[in-house]
Design a protein that fits this description.
2 helices, single chain, about 100 residues, four-stranded antiparallel beta sheet
Length: about 100
């Protein structure tokens, strides 16, 4: 008999770009509906990440100032407990600094 309980996976990323890639991976590889995935600042500050990347850097290489670089980005999702290891591994492979399952 399979485990039908759910658990929450939280993964912390340095950039919004990496967090967005993780969301796409959860949707496309793991079949998780996009509305079930949550992205937010990992701290109390509004933030686009802790390292500039992607849209945070202009074509000339200058860091934009309209998107605060004040902390990490958290991606969280509730999944079936029997999928925990696969989802945690995927988040780690995509560059998550920390991955937890509750």
């Amino acid at each position: 008999m399979s485990d039908s309980s759910t658990t929450t996976v939280r993964a912390i990323f340095e950039t919004r770009e990496a967090a967005n890639l993780a969301v796409e991976h959860l949707v496309q590889k793991h079949g998780i509906p996009r509305p079930d995935i949550f992205v937010q600042s990992a701290n109390d500050e509004n933030s686009a990440g802790s390292v500039p990347s992607g849209g945070d850097v202009s074509s000339s290489g200058d860091v934009r100032t309209d998107a605060p670089i004040m902390g990490d980005i958290e991606v969280s999702v509730d999944i079936a407990a029997d999928r925990l290891a696969a989802v945690q591994r995927s988040m780690g492979d995509l560059g998550a600094m920390r991955v937890s399952g509750l």
